[in-house]
Amino acid sequence: MAIILHELVGTDQGRPFSPHCWKTVMSLAHKGLPFDRNRVSFKEIPKLENGYSAKVPIIRDEDKLVADSFAIALYLEDRYPDRPSLFKGEGGRAMARFVEGWSQMIIHPFINVVILMPVHDLLDTSNQAYFRESREKVFGRTLEDVAATRDTKREAFTASLEPIRKTLLSQPFIGGESPLFADYIIFGAFQWVRVLTSYKLFDAGDPVQDWFERCLDLHGGVAREIKAAA
Q: What's the predicted TM-score (pTM) here?
């Protein structure tokens, strides 16, 4: 029986956008595990699996439920040890913890600004109201005011990616010669932008763009199957 992945969409069922859900998509594909994708809106999440989690991703593997992309990766690693490893040992798990924290503190703040209005515009009226109220409470101002700061923040964001560039000078993936969960953590954030907006994150010739393209081609191109936003 295939694993069920509950993931987030707006009105377009063919455009799943959650960065955390994309981490899980890539983790499942990395393990070579068949899975079915159940795509839901923000307001449908509390109804999933008898209210199991307030957020997605959630997976159901037979009678086992797991939420949170990192917890899911750990579960898959332990449950399916005979399949390709997401961490390659305790060092890889520790590295992924660092990358997760770094991504949340350095990458996500800028990308949250980039995707605010594209996410809002992809939702139906009811979900738009929820999204606006919840995000404006966090930011303390309107979505439009936050989004207007996007271009002034881009240079600092580009500079912040220098640790990844340095890493990619000596290896094709953050995980080394092949990708690990650490790659999927960063990839999920950039895929978030790709499927929602044509906003250009990278300058021409940026090694991070080249790495992102390599990730899009992984696992039969499961991520590239979702077309980039026009």
A: 0.97
